[in-house]
Amino acid sequence: MFSIEQLSQMVQRHLGLANNVNELQITPKWTIKESPLSGRGLFATEDISPGEVLFVDHPLIYGPRSGAIIQRGCTVCCKLNTNKFYKCPKCSLLLCSEACQNNNAHYDDCRIISAWYNKVTIEEVDDTLLSRALTAIRALLLNEDQKQFMSSLQAHMLPQHGTEIRELQQFFDIPTQDAMFMTLASCVLDANAFQIATYYGRKEMGKRGLYPVSSLMNHNCVPNTRYNYNSDLQMIVKAVKPIQAGCEIFTCYTGLLWGTPARRIHLYKTKHFLCKCERCADPTERGTMLAALKCFSRECPGSLLPLEPLKSSSTWRCLECSLRVPSDNICTLQRALGSLIGSLDFGNINELENFFLKRVTRYVPKTNQIVIDLQCRLIWELGEVDGLRWHELSESRLVLKENLCRDTLRTAAALGAGDAHLRGLLLYHLHAALAERARRYPDLYEVALLSSHSGAA
Prior knowledge:
By secondary structure, the chain is an alpha+beta fold. It has helices at about 5-15, 100, 105-115, 125-135, 145-150, 165-170, 175-190, 260-270, 280, 325-340, 350-360, 360-365, 370-380, 395-415, 420-440, 440-455, and strands spanning about 20, 25, 30-35, 40-45, 55, 60-65, 85, 95, 115-120, 170-175, 195, 205-210, 220, 225-230, 235-240, 250, 295, 305, 315-320, 325. It contains 16 helices and 20 strands.
């Protein structure tokens, strides 16, 4: 186990905070300390203002996500929309072009994999499994300092972690030391990796990266930081609210717009802890009611919420009629709702729109996370896909798009959390809807503009 001092030195080298050439020392406004929540964490050493950049992290390793249901694409450029996929004849990794095959990144991947003795012919190797394991395979390319830094991070060592490396040994005779290190890398990735956001509009395979400094931040469902990525896949971490000296610096490991039961289940399954933050303890989730369900009494228009949201066995109670519903009944309903949503064809916008407008609120209140998720899916598609381009949208769909953007932005604002990527997308789509309205009705736009200028004067 590495000491806090040793870890701090590795972080400084990773971030380039100490430049030995000109003895320039950059001191951040945070430090690493033992956290009362879990292990180590980052803590402010000075007051930090909203918008301040705390650090710019870069991944030790990155590559395809490991989930079994992730759509697979080229292991170099991550493209999905091509009919030219083929397997490398040396390593069996999936590629889309000769340019990708000759890329330095593939050269390094291929050099590692092709050096292993094949237990089957290369054509029989499972390219999907290779893609799932590729990020951990790339850990073998790290230098000794980087390997030490990776090894200092928390790792999930339960049996369900590292399975892709064990499965890979069915196809290759991998040196024991390499297999052990890749398994460790897989377990570290499962504990710490961040999903790398795809540029809007691009159809790419999902990626993840091991951002070691960012991974030291503990979780809170209303974090005091946000992050985004630049074109070099660097993670830029900023404060979204004032952080006083001595306070812990948090990120969020779940979806911002998920309800408390969904967030806590996800955290328990993937990170092996149950969150007990203020948002989780608040049945209304700052008034957003993201987890609320319809009252079981048909005559009552009220919403059900858990009496003790930090207990999975909590009874739920209606805010209007005070009807109490046991947790088993709630779980049954939630499973049924999951099956219902799973039956939808998310590629059929007409079906989604009809379900959103006419059916979904029969089952859940309009504040429920299922409704919010459908709102977002419609926002991303209306105006952006063939047959529903901006100039093709009916007036009712244009109004719907604008309203959906505003509603979702209000929910995000009520949570007081800074999801830069989500907020940026919502503002972009709202602006595009308003721009289309101005194009269609320029006279009304000019009147509104003049009114706003006169009011400001």
